[in-house]
Amino acid sequence: MSTTETPTGLTLRVGEFEGPLDLLLHLCRTSEIDLAALPVRTITDQYLTHLEAMEFRDLDMAGAYLVMAATLIYLKSKLLVPPDETEEQLDPEAEALRQGLELRLREYARVKAVGVWLGAREAEQALLWGRPVSELPAAEEIPLEDLSVHLLERAIKRLIEEQNRVRPREIAPEPPSILERMTEILSVLRDTWSLLFSSLTGGDRRRSEVVVTLLAVLELVKMGRIRAQQTELFGEIVIERQTGETISNATAQ
Amino acid sequence: MPQPSDVVEALLFASDAPLEAERIREVLDLADVGEARALVDALRERYETAGCALTIVEVGGGFRMVTRPDMAPWLLRLAKTRTKARLSRPALETLAIVAYREPVSRPEVDALRGVNSDAVLDNLLERRLIRIAGRKDAPGRPFLYETTREFLVAFGLRDLGDLPKVEGQLVLPDGVAPETAVVATDGQAQAEQDPRPGGTDVTPGS
Question: Do A114 and B13 touch (CB under 8 A)?
C-alpha cells in the first residue's frame, strides 16, 4: 500500500508549495501514498527532508510549516513499536489526530482540484469580451445590493484622509513653477509605480496650483517621461512612469 | 415597429452587467420570464446562423453579449497585450473555498489552506470577486466573506450551482472524529481519495 522509497531526483524550488498541506499532498502523490492509511513514519521523514531544503521568505509561512512538522513528529513519537514494521499503531488520541490530518489533506486535495477547475474556467472566459462600461445614464434609484461594508469602509477612510489633509496649510509665498512641479512629480514617481492626479492636487490647493500641476503633467507626457491615463470622462487620471525608465529602475534595484 | 428580439439585442448591447431575464420581461412588458428567455434564445440562434462575431452567454443570473471565443487573438492584438491578467493558484484555491463554504471567515479559510490567507483575501476583495457579508458570531467577530456577481461573470457561471460537485462537503475538520467516520464509511470517498493532479474528484458541472 505505502512505499518506503523516498522520492529521488526530486527538484525542489523555493516557493513551489503553497503551504504545509500542499507539500504533504505533493509527497503523498509522488510516492503514491493512500491517504486513508497515511503512513506516519514515511511521510514524517519525507516531510522533514523537504523542510530542510526549503528557504522561507517570511516567518508566518515558516511557522505554518513548522507546526505541521511538530504534528508529524508528535504522531511519529506516539507510534508504538510494532512487531511488524509495516503496521502502525497509535493510541486513540494520536489516531484521532492522524485522522484529522488525513481529513484536512483530503479537503485540501478537493480545494486544489476546484482551484484547477476554476483556473480552466477563467482561461476560457478570458477569451470572451463584453462591454466594460455602459453609457446608459445612471438609474435614479441607487441599487443597494452591490454595495458592501468593505466599500463603505474604504469610502469613509478616503473621506477622513481628505479631511485630515485639509486643515494645516502653509501658504507658499510664490506660486510654484511648472519646472518645480515637474521635478516634484518625477521624484514622487521614483518611489512608486503610479500615482493619481488627485493626490497631486488634493487638499485645498489653489486653482493656480492645479493648473500648474496639469501643465507639468502634460509637459512630462510630452517629454515621454510619464504616461497619463483617464479611463472615463471627469474620472481619475492615473500617472505612471514611462516603461523605458521603469525597466532601468527595476534592474538597478 | 422593431421586432422584440431586436429590442433585446439593443438592451444587451447597452448593458455592462449581465441582464436578468426578469429585467427584459419588465422592459418589454412581456407576460412571463420564459418569453424573455425565448427571445434571447432566438437572438442567439440568429447570431449563430449568421456567423456573427458576437454571442450571448448566461452568467451571473443574467445574459451578456460577448465576442465569440475565436475572436480572442485579434482582440488581444487590438489591446496590445498577450493575455488577460489571470489569478494565481493561491487566489483560485481561496476563491474555491469561499465559493463552496460561503459565508466563510478568514480563520476557516486559513484552516483549510494551512497557511495565512490575509493577503490573498485582500486581493480578491480588491478585485471585487468576493465581498464582506457580515461578521461571524465567534471570538474576535471575524469578517465573513462571500463571492460576488463579478465572480460568477469572471468564471462564466450562471450561479454557484454551476460549480463542479465535489465528493462530500468542503467541511472543516473541527469536530474530527464524527466527520472522519462519515468520510471513512463512504465508499465513494474511498474510491476517489487518490488525488491526482487535476483532481479526479471534480466533474465539471454541465
Answer: no
